[in-house]
Amino acid sequence: MKVSVTTLSLQDLDVDLLILPIGHMMAKARALQIGGPIGTALSSALIDFEGKPGETLLCYPTEGRARRVAMIGLGDPYEIDREELRKAAADGTRLAMKTKASTVALCLPDSSIDAEAAGQSLVEGYMLAAYEYDRYKTDSGEPKVGTERLVLHASSDEKAARRGAERGRVEAESTMTARDLVNLSPHEKTPTLLGKIVERSGRKYGYEVSVWDKSDIEKEKMGGLLGVNRGSVEPPTLIEMTWNPSKASNSRPVVLVGKGIVFDTGGLSLKPTKNSMDHMKADMAGGAAVIGAMEAIARLDVPLYVIGLVPATDNRPGQDAYVPGDVLRMHSGMTVEVLNTDAEGRLILADVLSYAKLYRPEIVIDLATLTGAQVVALGSQVAAVMTRQDEDANERLDAMMTAGNRSGDLLHPMPMHAHYADALKSEVADIKNIGNREAGSITAAKFLEHFVDYPWVHVDIAGPAFLKKSLPYRPIGGTGFGVRLLTEFIRDYAYPKKR
Ligand code: BES
Ligand code: ZN
Ligand code: ZN
Fold it and tell me: Which one of 82, 214, 346, 491 is the catalytic residue?
């Protein structure tokens, strides 16, 4: 989608659809302020429009240049936030598609949000709502109209609006990269093919990519990743992405780790098909989020040294598959008794987390579709965030939550008291890979904690990574959850005082 910014008078916009987001009870004032044929059209439609969130109304000016004007409700004008703008823009996308408008203008509303943030949010909402995954539709039907080009209208602060619009476009496109990867059929994203896709992305956007093969992984003695891979006919890979611009403000990197289980059958502890295994092509959504975030960070030229690591394998019950009772020796040297082959994510992540120590990272953040318990606890719109309980734990959680609230990728913290680790005690090895039925997301995080010795944040995205029912700007299927979260976190980290 092409996105541009204009400061022309609204009356001069020659478009099929002009979209005006308007706060509750603000439509009358807005109509007067705008005046001319558009103001007249708005005034005549006011009897049917209050401006509540989700409310939309189309009107047809009899004069002037815009063929259609849509009012979209934003609710309480004092409580308009970025998310409200994204949702309003998404309503605009639906109207543009419905009316087959090929030229669309979206107007920055009067609100307390600055033009940069408002521009970013509107573009994100509009573009993300227009996403459709049609790779496997033989006849993709009528060509899509209404989503090729967007003109953002700013009445003042053009430069800020332009900066916001550009960032919104990059973050939306990077989110769509992650959606595409999650929605891709598993046979097209084997660990090797996924590596090739990322190499192409690195060449396109200017970050380095190195794909480890099985022998590299064996040399590093990554017993977790190799153990999970034993049932597969496809060799594992470890995809390493590096963004280290000369102007980076840090010498020790920020490391992002993403779970890359390209398909999770559960292994010998086989999952049932319905509502369980049937969604497990999404078990690499953490990896997809890291890949999308690396694209965004490189495209936005963020002055920070960032490394992305995605261990990739499928988890299958093959002839040589690992079995309950197997003891694995991990990269860290620790031994793990496998009591359920479906708790595989933590095994591949543990190896990469302990490998990440070599970088002496300032902080490591991992994203993973790790536990069904996360979905039970928080549902499909909020991810769980956990961190090591040291003196800086609250500061780290605050920074993550702030990025979550700003990006719309919402987080909620889970406790990490020491006693939760007791559930992982093993009779035969150092630890086992499952706890009991209680607090499943926390015991999974406690498992990972054994393999880190640096500031670390874990985000369990099992619920929000993949939807069975659509949300305003998130479609059914892969959502790209985490791309905007990580990108906003990294931007805050790189420019701490400016914002
Ligand atoms: N990939 C799943 C977790 C998952 C469940 C993601 C639902 C998305 C939606 C993970 O590998 C898994 O199977 N976890 C097990 C762990 C258990 C055996 C300790 C789970 O949560 O049931
Ligand atoms: Zn599993
Ligand atoms: Zn899994």
Answer: 346
